[in-house]
Records
---
Amino acid sequence: MSPYEAQALYELRRWQHEMLRNPGMFNALAHKAQVKLNSYIPERVHQAITTAIKQMIRGVLFGAGYISAKPVDGLPLEMRETMVRERVRYYQQAAAAEGGVTGAGGILLGLVDFPLLLGLKLKLLYDISAVYGYDVKDYRERVYLLHIFELAFSSHEHRRKVYRHIADWEAQQVLLPEDINAFDWRSLQQEYRDYIDLAKMAQMIPVIGAPIGAVVNYRLITKLGETAMNAYRMRWREQGLLQE
């Protein structure tokens, strides 16, 4: 085992502990603040956001509009993760720039930000999957991507449920239905919306929306990148590609 692989395993164990820990008091307070803020947002805005999320997720499930990179073969973990970090930095910059522009425009441009940011996140996941050597032309790999998405942007309760599901992915993927329409995308989009509502609604406030949009988008991409890296490290270990 190389020193890099040893460090990667250490980071993986810490991430696994985080995935399974119980929610704290801060999470409950944040949820109350989210509910209060949401009550001030017009229903038409909520409906537009939900529709955008729904359509983007369905697009990923059916492979609409996404061009996947060729899976990378024959590289050690360290080189792959160097490539992953480069992709994350690229999408961090793109998301921050997009969030700053749309945040400066208030509610109308703020609505545009939701599908744009979601598209960047999903494309990042496609790129990361290919770097770790997986082909998203197989719909089961796209389902795995969406589970990673859920891990990054869900409540503690839902996150633990998803984690336990993919921790044994080699067995779980065999049980997936052949029909991709059977995937429960509804719970995914609801969890995602609830997770980001508080931060993204603040982005629609005039004047302060631009800096908030840039920072929030940057951090959301960062969180997704870290989650994806550890999810694939866990999968590599399960397959014997990363050994203790």
---
Amino acid sequence: MNKKIAIIGTDPRLHYLQQSVSDYLDTQLYPTMTWDKELRETVFSYEPDIVFLPIQPIHTEGPFELPISCQTVFIGKSTESIEKAVKKDNIQTFYYLEDEEWIWDNANLTAEGFINYFYSQEKQVIYNKEFIITGYGRVGKRLALALHHLGAKVIISVRSEHQLYEAKSYGYQISTLDNLFEEQMRPSVYMINTIPSKWLKNENAVYFKRVFDLASNPGCLIDVENTPLNYSLSTSLPGMYFPQDAGQLLARAVLKHLAFLEEEK
């Protein structure tokens, strides 16, 4: 008999995750972002062997608990209550947002999703436009490559000297983050942020043509109460534009980890 997986969350890619693993697992999708008494009772009665928690932190009303049947839990962004529950019950955990293969594949979808987002929002071509990308991790690298191939002028801005000169070796212009506003702040330039922390002052953001923030909530703005008109928090682009492809990536990460656990037995 197949193992049971309970998939929790409202992200559209989870529907395709369910479809993709259904040949190997009995599945049940719970389209909610709130762990409450009703969800607890429903999940517990299903008696899943595996629980897949949503990408964004689940909101809890009351204590978060996992059924006795649960042997493995897949965690997106964790919370204190989730960590307490998995440690208490000694459950095998897998933080799928930290899976290296998934991170790079998802970065490709994010880069392509941004291009779709830019076209739909700006109604302009990318060719010959100037883009500053703050941060040069996986998303920053894939995004720089995609924009460069479409004929954009790409400037990479980071604090890390290693990343700065790595970007230069690939032919991008560079600017240190500390000097960014002195050197590159122009009303014709688009900024794309990939740094997952609050570092951008609102008064600096308004001097760019537009700021696209791809980092997770709450984004890069220091003052989130007074959002500039040229700022947009543009998260979850893979789920927005490519839910099927993104769901299949999640399924690949799940099945790969379950296969690894079986090999360890």
---
Amino acid sequence: MTTPAGETPGTTSPPIWRIVAVAVFVLALAFGAWGLWRVLAPGDVRAQLDTSERLNRSGQAQLDQLQQRVTTLTRSDQISREANRDLQSTLAERDEEIAALRADVAFYERLVGATAQRRGLNVHALKMQPQNDTAWHFTTTLTQNLNRGAVSTGLLTLSIEGTRAGKLQKLAWPDLRQQADAPGLAYSFKYFQQVEGDVFLPPGFVPVRVAVRLAPRAGAAIEESFTWADATRDVAPAVAAP
């Protein structure tokens, strides 16, 4: 039997399928190595890090925006609460003003209204307001509607009864004004007038009653008294001088 030239006697060529299998295996290894290189390549790592940083910056920006929004809403809520408190305070003040105006209207109606009771000169009210430990500011309201259109004129003085060192004592107008020849306070009105002034109480004196004396230019003097409790009702406590 004749052997082809170039071949060794007794050997045979490998089957074609083995060659194909080896080639496929080699290609698979090469593709896997290429994929692994793509994953582990420094450029891809930097790209992934950049992407992660961009995502972190985006998330931080959104977080900052949310925090700023929370701060803005908190401040807005605080402003709204403060505005509401101011509004409530203003409404309370308006209610007090309206109540005072209604009281004034009722007073005027009683004084000059068609059904008002006719009275001559009198002391309608007296209020004592503390200034310090010894000084007091008083406000008297004088009225008259008996002679409409007529002018009432005269002088007003106060006297205060109380106790001191366990003894009864009455302070006359000069004592209260700390002036020996203290003149009375003048008044002049048609229907009503408020006369104000200051008096001074000696240390240790406990007032009990206040008398208001009116000495009109014409006619007899008029005197009306008020308890100290009534005269100082609804006023602030005395504040000691610094």
---
Amino acid sequence: MRPQAPSLPPADSRGTRAALLFALTAERLSVFYEHGQWPTAAQGASLIAEWLGRSGRSLPLADRRFLSELSDELARQLAGSLSREAGLQTAHEMMEALDPNYDSDLARALMAECTKLLDGT
């Protein structure tokens, strides 16, 4: 008998929303530093739908757009407050932290910021 995979939290749970915000912020920073462009709100919302779809979950478009816009604000704030080198390192660190086995003080701090942003809205 195969062990059952742990059930995933609902897409609209606080933790899932914070993780989506973190992941999309990381993606935005990576795209900005690699290509000099910011993904649109629609592109971010579509990416969230794709990520959730892999696990059979979904969020309404309004929620996905909200998270996309919030991630845009956070990514631009981070990019504006860091040197290019520090921004590249931050983007890299955040992308690495998408692996649950990767441990990072910076990623934990940024995840806490994502949670705080969601709690404040």
